[in-house]
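ARCHIVE CARD
CATEGORY: sequence design from structure
SOURCE FIELD: tokenized fold
FIELD CONTENT:
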């Protein structure tokens, strides 16, 4: 359906392995979420869609929203244990789907807000770094073995279904009876 993703339980398990480390996010090459970020909310979004081939799809996303305050807060970097305490608080109010895909939502004045996937977790000194990778659009028909565009038969995969053509049978109702002929005065 999409690029590689990590489920909610697997995401939490990776955090639980390193509660003493500082949690850092890299959102693009050499660009980091400021260390004074806040986790402002955790959203659970059940999604139901119908794709271009008329197939219904359903999945759940859990979105962790990060916010950078405009003022620098010296010495404030979030430890993994703090993130886990926020997760615990959220889960005490709302059960989260253990297999839901995780996305991190972030933006700042130099980077448009978007949802990204946690792609790689790596330890670097006192930091647990989560490298983020962008989400992308996709055609689910391709993931089902179809194509997105023109098929080998020339049909468009995303074109609306054409109604079946019905044949109309003509019946001669006058066959075997007297019929009117021009000038006979019967009509």
């Amino acid at each position: 359906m999409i690029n590689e993703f990590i489920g909610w339980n697997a995401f939490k398990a990776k955090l639980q392995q390193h509660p003493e480390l500082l949690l850092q996010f890299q959102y693009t090459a050499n660009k980091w979420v400021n260390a004074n970020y806040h986790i402002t909310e955790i959203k659970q979004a059940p999604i139901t869609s119908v794709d271009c081939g008329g197939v219904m799809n359903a999945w759940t996303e859990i979105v962790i929203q990060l916010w950078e305050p405009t003022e620098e807060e010296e010495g404030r970097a979030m430890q993994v244990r703090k993130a886990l305490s926020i997760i615990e608080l959220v889960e005490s109010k709302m059960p989260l789907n253990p297999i839901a895909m995780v996305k991190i939502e972030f933006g700042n004045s130099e980077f448009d807000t978007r949802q990204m996937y946690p792609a790689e977790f790596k330890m670097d000194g006192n930091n647990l770094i989560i490298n983020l990778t962008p989400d992308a659009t996709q055609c689910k028909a391709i993931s089902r073995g179809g194509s997105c565009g023109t098929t080998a038969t020339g049909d468009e995969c995303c074109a609306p279904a054409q109604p079946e053509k019905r044949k109309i049978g003509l019946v001669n109702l006058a066959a075997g009876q007297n019929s009117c002929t021009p000038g006979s005065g019967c009509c």
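CARD ANNOTATION: The longest strand covers residues 111-124. The radius of gyration is 30 Å.
SHELF: design records, drawer C
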